[in-house]
Fold this sequence. Notes:
2 copies of one chain form a homodimer. By secondary structure, chain A is mostly helical. Chain A has a single domain, classed as Winged helix-like DNA-binding domain superfamily/Winged helix DNA-binding domain (Arc Repressor Mutant, subunit A, Orthogonal Bundle), CATH 1.10.10.10. Chain A has helices spanning 4-19, 28-35, 39-51, 69-72, 76-84, 108-124, 127-137; strands spanning 56-58, 64-66. Chain A has a two-stranded antiparallel ribbon. In chain A, α1 (4-19) crosses α3 (39-51) and α1 (4-19) crosses α7 (127-137). The first copy, chain A, is elongated, with a radius of gyration of 17 Å. At the A-B interface, α1, α6 and α7 of A face α1, α6 and α7 of B. The structure holds a DNA duplex.
Amino acid sequence: MFSKSCKYAIRAVVHLAIHSSESHKIGVKEVAEALDVPGPFLAKVLQQLSKNGLISSTKGPSGGFYLSERDKSASMRKVVESIDGPDIFTSCLLGLPVCSSANPCPLHDKAVIYREGLMYLLTRQTIKDLSVRIINDELIL
Amino acid sequence: MFSKSCKYAIRAVVHLAIHSSESHKIGVKEVAEALDVPGPFLAKVLQQLSKNGLISSTKGPSGGFYLSERDKSASMRKVVESIDGPDIFTSCLLGLPVCSSANPCPLHDKAVIYREGLMYLLTRQTIKDLSVRIINDELIL
DNA sequence: AGATAAAAAGATGTTTATATCTTTTATGAT
DNA sequence: ATCATAAAAGATATAAACATCTTTTTATCT
Lengths: 141, 141
């Protein structure tokens, strides 16, 4: 479903939402250790998220990555699309170039419902929503 | 969602269901041209499907791949799992090793519903069901 | 039996995804 | 102003997926 980069991105963004703020930035190393993922690879992912404006960062001493309040109001869908590309929820399940409700592939009508359900779920769910839920339900990352 | 091999497999199986029979086997080349996919690569996929007992084949002159009536009664889910592995519908969306309804990752409860919907759809839908629908609705492959 | 056709199997190449390392640049602290 | 710190950027390495080619095996027909 999601690429590994994307999975890391989702977890990292939520971790930052919970543990960072404008006044308390976090380094890649710390995030990587918390999530138990390869640091240099996570750095790439965070840089891309930063370049796409989904997370914030500053260089230099006491710098690091963080989420502003504005960042936290973005949808999880944007996070996913920022890494795996905008077509992940809309491209044909069978990889056919022409596939739409007008010209459906054999799986289109039946399967698209479920994928769109997931898409809309992630569209509605903001980073903040998710992190609040994680704190309340004591979920793991 | 599905790997390229898996997409090819789905399309090839359906093509065989529609165009082949025990008395009319089809060569890889013919299938590859019909679906417009690379022949040698499709051959690998068909071989794996054959080895896993999802499609039938015979060697030699007038040999080729085909679907017996018994083959056609298998679910599309088996086709998918035969190529992409049995975990494709059940592994954690975030790639966490421990993730279940008892110990859910942040996306688990909400997202799993949709993926399971797709899984059950493919479980119910046999190869024959799908090919009949394709013929009736004149869908493309 | 020999020729042939086609899958099966194996070897190899190419591309993309994943992962790591090194250098550069910007920032805050002294 | 200088130094230390940490992200950004670039270069490189490894693994997996994707793709192709070649050889072998097997079945069928003559």
